[in-house]
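Reviewer 2 asked us to include a model.

Predict the structure of this chain.
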Amino acid sequence: MSIRAFIGAIELGLVYSLLAFGTFISFRILRVADLTVDGSFVLGAAVCAVFTAMGMPLAGIGVAILAGALAGLITAFLQTKMGIQPILAGILTMTGLYSINLMVMGGKANIPLLNQSNIFTYAESIIGGSAYKVFVLTGIISIVFILLNWFFRTQLGLSIRATGDNEDMCRASSINTDSVKMVAFAISNSIVSLSGALVAQMQQSADVNMGSGMVVISFASIIIGGVIIKNKNITLSLLSVIIGSLIYRLIIALILTTNFPPSYLKLISALVVITALSLPNVSKRMEIYRVRRRRNNVKYKISEQNF
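Predicted model (structure tokens):
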């Protein structure tokens, strides 16, 4: 792998770790697979692209975060107030967001941002070099990491974590779980939209179909990181998401250096997730098999001694 390809993989790993942060809140903390991610990611990119095209890249990132939070609130509302199952609520919101994203983009499927100033062009003029994007993304991720680590130690953050662990107990403790879920989904999708906004500025374009498969990518990052760091501490859990995202992108970059067809990347992502999900169960079954085999060997030796 060349240095340029390595830096590119690190850049993508960092920007998509924000996507994984958002999915981590719903998937690991609330124990819900929120499929809104595919739509809110594009929403963030679309909103940011429109503002960037008007010469307001920083405002575009801020509005993208608010738009993502609104999308998360809609999903939470469908779940809590309308009684719709979590997965179906995410699918419905994601489906509706496709049309909304087209409306935001003025009916266009793609918005090019070539020759438009953004936070990365600003950083290039100040920092220079080939790794200026890495510095910008590292700074943004550090801020999000610190804020999330602090938030999930507050009373509201602990209530969100408790709701994911045992919702019935939280209700018995007079915690408004519906409000807690709304806050959690709003934060989750706002971070996902931030990721989409940064991707749009990095790639200098926004496409209405760029959110396809984002759920799989984020799940892969979370699961790979969880296999490497198994500690339940919230700080290490958030750190594992970043590590998992970087490793996932490095794996994809290594595959692309071979003659493997790029059209199979979605299949590879699915296989990576399947492998990571099945590893704990496979290792557990192997351990049970080894224990049973030892017991059978002991029984066989005892029977031989009796003879």
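The chain has two domains: 3-258, 265-307. The longest helix spans residues 265-306. We have added this to the supplementary material.
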